Amino acid sequence: MHININITNYCNQKCIFCFAGAELKTEQIPKNMSLATFSRILAAHTDNKQKTIRLMGGEPCLHENLSGFLDLASKKKFQIHIFSNGILNKETVALLASYKDRVAYVFNISTPSFQHNVLVRNRVMRLISHFGQITNVGVSLTITPFTTTDYLEDLKTVCTSIHNVRIGVANPIAGEKNSYSLKDFPRFGSVMVNIISKLRAMGYEKHIALNCGLTRCMFSTTQFSYMKKHVEYMGWSCFAKEGNIDVSSDETAFHCFPFSREYRLPIKGRSLEATSNKLFAHHMQIWAQQKNSICKKCPHYGFGADRCPGPCLAFQHNQ
Ligand code: SF4
Ligand code: SF4
Fold first, then answer.
1. Among 184, 266, 267, 313, which one has the highest count of C-beta atoms within 10 angstroms of its own C-beta?
2. How many domains does the chain contain in total?
3. Beta strands 265-266 and 137-143: pairing type?
4. Residue 186's domain spans which residues?
């Protein structure tokens, strides 16, 4: 199970695809998580075999008490993964470097500043190179059918510092407008193959994984065979995300960001594992209620290994 703890709703970027958009806008929860809340969330994590947490936001490194969070999680022997955009000041970089044995990173390199501002891009790449020498560093890319990837060429200089690459789809937020339609789906395959082949051509040989939200019909047979050789994929669409839990500063949890404002559960009095199971069961109920006539006629449609359950539920919800 992946435990995502959203410690702040502040961010210094405005990604158009931001999966946390609904959370960042809401006034219903405290902007910053308190240390006391964080401590209770860690205590609700009762699985001693799996002691990893993921700090997310917003930009988690903007939390005013980041050192307090790192200290507490370290004392309780958690490994920490920080999901950051890497646009950080020197003091934060120095603080993070002092936790090098506990903390690994995934840097979002699809931010507007990374893509369009060469000074910021160079700064983030220096950070990748610096942290890549002392700990595990991955990068994440979020794609739409219209994503251009020219800026990826610059990653060549830091390829050897990166330990993994995650590629995700810009999933919509339930209740908002979809930014692409079903007829745009095949373009995702071309964007994906283009990114993978660029990474391999520039000498990146390590792990590439996919996030949830991809569907089988985004790929031609040739693209799918190429992709399978190069990436780890857990399953199509929602099936790539079983066992995720996101916990917010108000001590409520949800299963995925697009539905964060539609369905959440308080974690008080329950373990994170039990809460996650309940959230997942609810997610499956929503899936079972979908009436997607195109998918139901599709030979790939269904439940289980290699079956495609249809697009991101939030996408379907918005149609
Ligand atoms: S609804 Fe499914 S595909 Fe969409 S974000 Fe949630 S788990 Fe991922
Ligand atoms: S089930 Fe739907 S989303 Fe999945 S491959 Fe078939 S048509 Fe595409």
1. 313
2. 1
3. unpaired
4. 2-318
Q: Which helix (H) or strand (E) holds 87?
A: none
Instruction: Identify the residue whose tokens are 């195109």.
Output: 294
Q: pLDDT digits over 280-301, tens only?
A: 999 888 888 877 788 989 999 9
The answer to whether the CB of 280 falls within 8 A of the CB of 263 is no
Is the shortest distance between the CB of 307 and ligand 2 below 6 Å?
Answer: no
Report d(CA 181, CA 271) in Å as an integer.
Answer: 38
308 lines ligand 2 (CB under 6 A): yes
CATH number at residue 17: 3.20.20.70
List pLDDT tens digits, range 205-258.
999 999 999 999 999 999 999 998 999 888 899 888 777 899 999 999 999 888
Residue 46 has pLDDT above 90, yes or no: no
Which ligand approaches the C-alpha of residue 142 most closely? 1
| Residue to substitute in 312, 315, 317, 318 for testing ligand 1 pocket (most ligand atoms within 8 angstroms of CB) | 312
Q: Where are the alpha helices (DSSP H) in the chain?
A: 21-25, 35-44, 66-75, 90-97, 112-116, 118-134, 185-201, 221-230, 272-289, 293-296, 313-318
Structure tokens of 116?
A: 């369009």
Pick the atom of ligand 2 nearest to 299's CA.
6
Instruction: Please give the full DSSP string across 108-134, using - where no structure is assigned.
Output: E--SHHHHH-HHHHHHHHHHHHHHHHH
What local confidence, expressed as pLDDT, does residue 25 receive?
Answer: 80
Residue of 17, 19, 212, 289 to mutate, ligand 1, most atoms within 8 A of C-beta: 212
For residue 78 the two structure tokens come to: 């958690």
- Say how many CA atoms lie within 13 Å of 33 toward its Cβ: 31
Pocket of ligand 1 (CB under 6 A): 171, 212-213, 237-238, 241, 256, 258, 312-314
